[in-house]
Amino acid sequence: MPDQYRMQHPGEQYPTPPLDRQEEIPYPGLTSEMASEPDHGERTYRGSGRLEGRRALVTGADSGIGRAVAVAFAREGADVVVSYLDEEEDARRTAALVEEAGRRAVTAPGDIRAEEFCRDLIRTTVSELGGIDILVNNAAYQHMEPGGIADMTTEQFDRVMKTNLYALFWLCKYAAAEMRPGSTIVNTTSIQASSPSPGLLDYATSKAGIVNFTRGLAADVAAQGIRVNAVAPGPIWTPLIPATMTREAYQQFGADVPLGRPGQPAELAPSYVFLASQESSYITGDTIAVTGGTPFG
C-alpha cells in the first residue's frame, strides 16, 4: 500500500501507464466503476488539528480530489458539507469517512449550474454548521473532444462554463457575504490553464479563467480578512477520467509528465489543507501547482 510518509521514489509511489484496462463509464462516474480505485488518503492521511472547529463546504466532494479534501479536512478537525451532483453511493462513502474522523458531515445533492442551488448551498452550510469558514470550489465538467473546436457544440461549451465558472462566481459571492476574517476560499484550476489540450479547449479556457478570478477576488476581499487561492492539478486519477476520455487516452493518462504517472487524490489534499489553514496566512491570490513536474504558468 502506498504510504504518503515513507521516503520513496515519487515516480514509483503509484501505478504508472499503461494503466489497468478500464471501460468508459457514464458521466460523472462512480468510484466503484473504476478498475483501479484512486487513493483518497483513507488509510494514510494523518491530521494534526490544523482546521479544528472550522466549517467547510467542498463541491464535488463525493469522489476524487473532493473526497480526499473532505477526508483531510475532517481529520484536521473541520465539519464538512459534501456537495455533489447525484452520485449518492460515493457521497455516502465520503460522509461516512468524515464522520469516522469524529466530525459532522452534511450531504447536499444538486446541480451547481443553477444560481439558486449555489445560494442554497451557502445557506445550508451556515444553517447546518453554524457558519462557513472554508469554501473549496472543486466540482468541474470536462469532455474530451478529439475533433477540437470543429466538433464542440454550444451546449457543451455552455455546460463547461456554467459548471466551472458561473458556479464559482455564485458560490464565492454568497460565501464571502457570510465569512468572518480568517476564512479562506480555495479554487481548483488545472495544468490545462497554462498548457491547454486542443480536445479540452473549453475546459482549459474555464480553468485559465479560474486563475485570473482567484487573483482578482483575492484583492477584492483582502480587506475583509478573507484569503483566496487555487490549486492546479496535473493528471489526477479520478472517476472523471474514464467518464470523459477515450479508452486510449486514459490508458496512457499521466505518461507524459516528468514523474511518468498520474497523481492520486491523496497527493492533492495536503495543498488544500495548507491553503485553508492559518499556516498560509500570508498567501493570497496565488496558485499551487501539483502537476507531476509539468511547469505551470
Please give a structural write-up.
Helix 4 runs parallel beside helix 5 (201-221). With 297 residues, the protein is of the alpha/beta class. A seven-stranded parallel beta sheet has the order 3-2-1-4-5-6-7, sandwiched between helices. It contains eight helices and seven strands. The longest helix has 23 residues, at 154-176. It has helices at 64-75, 88-100, 115-129, 154-176, 201-221, 240-244, 247-251, 269-276, and strands at residues 55-59, 79-84, 105-109, 134-137, 184-188, 227-233, 287-290. The radius of gyration is 18 Å and the shape is globular. The model has no long low-confidence stretch (mean pLDDT 94). Strand 1 (55-59), helix 1 and strand 2 form a beta-alpha-beta unit.
What's the gist of this structure?
This protein has 297 residues and is of the alpha/beta class.
Computed structural class: alpha/beta
Instruction: Give the beta-strand count.
Output: 7
Uncertain ranges = none
Distance from N terminus to C terminus (CA atoms, Å) equals 33 Å
> Which bin fits the share of residues in helices?
25-40%
**Molecular shape:** globular
Radius of gyration: 18 Å
Major β-sheet strand ordering: 3-2-1-4-5-6-7
Which band does the percent of strand residues land in?
Answer: 5-15%
> What is the count of helical runs?
8
Strand and helix order: EHEHEHEHEHEHHHE
Name the average pLDDT.
Answer: 94
Taking the sheet with the most strands, its summary is: 7 strands, parallel
Describe the secondary structure blueprint for this structure.
Elements: E1 55-59, H1 64-75, E2 79-84, H2 88-100, E3 105-109, H3 115-129, E4 134-137, H4 154-176, E5 184-188, H5 201-221, E6 227-233, H6 240-244, H7 247-251, H8 269-276, E7 287-290
Parallel strand pairs: 1-2, 1-4, 2-3, 4-5, 5-6, 6-7
Helix pairs in contact: 1-2, 1-8, 3-4, 4-5
